[in-house]
Each structure stands twice: as structure tokens, then as C-alpha cells.
Write a structure and sequence with these properties.
0% strand, 123 residues, 6 helices, Four Helix Bundle (Hemerythrin (Met), subunit A)
Length: 123
């Protein structure tokens, strides 16, 4: 796998905009937002994988669409792009090579959440 830098992973203008919504001297809103994402995203990934395994391209695409949107809303650019690719496969009812996209989804999810936790100060 190629070397990945943070500018490829994240849209820092979105992250900074979200951090600006915190009260001065506090980071509770941003941390809470990331916490909700960390709670909800594994279920969507599970839905994507299960839909693929059962051949339900439409449901796979819908779950990927939801995950794409929530990822993009918090600045996870690269991960959102992968979700978009899966969403498009679902919309076109094309499950060919989705297994490779799902591998990237898993890899980049781990990388993304580890870096996101650092950015948000979550241990």
C-alpha cells in the first residue's frame, strides 16, 4: 500500500470549521461529533459488507451513501471517496470487484479513525 499523508485523508478546512463551533477553550462539540461517528460507522460498514455478501447491491449502495455523507461531513476525504465508489457500484447493480473496494474500506477506516481520534484528542 502506498504512503498516505494526512492531507490526502482529511479536508482540514472542514475539521477546523467544526472545531470553531466549540465554545472557547473547550472541544466538547467536536469530540462529541467524532464520538457519534465512531459509534455509528461500524454498523454501516457491517451493512455494506453483509449487503455485498448477500448480493443486495441496492442496500449496499444505500449504506455506502450514508457512510459517505457522514464521513465527508467531518472531513474524512479519502474514506468518503471509497464509500462513493461502493455507492456507485451499488447504484449500477455491479458487484464486480467490490471485494477489492471493501478491502480498501476496511484498511482506510482503521487508518482514518486512528488519525481522527488523535485530531479529536480521543484515547
Amino acid at each position: 500500500m502506498e504512503e498516505v499523508n494526512l492531507e490526502d485523508l482529511f479536508d482540514f478546512s472542514i475539521i477546523e470549521s467544526l472545531k470553531e463551533l466549540d465554545e472557547p477553550g473547550e472541544d466538547s462539540f467536536f469530540k462529541e461529533l467524532i464520538g457519534v461517528y465512531l459509534e455509528q460507522s461500524p454498523g454501516l460498514i457491517k451493512d455494506i459488507n453483509l449487503s455485498f455478501k448477500t448480493g443486495n447491491a441496492d442496500q449496499m449502495g444505500k449504506a455506502a451513501h450514508t457512510l459517505k455523507g457522514s464521513s465527508l461531513n467531518i472531513g474524512c476525504r479519502k474514506f468518503s471517496d471509497i464509500c462513493k465508489d461502493i455507492e456507485m457500484k451499488g447504484k449500477s447493480n455491479d458487484l464486480e470487484n467490490v471485494d477489492k473496494l471493501l478491502e480498501n474500506l476496511d484498511i482506510f477506516y482503521l487508518i482514518t479513525i486512528n488519525e481522527l481520534k488523535k485530531i479529536a484528542g480521543i484515547t
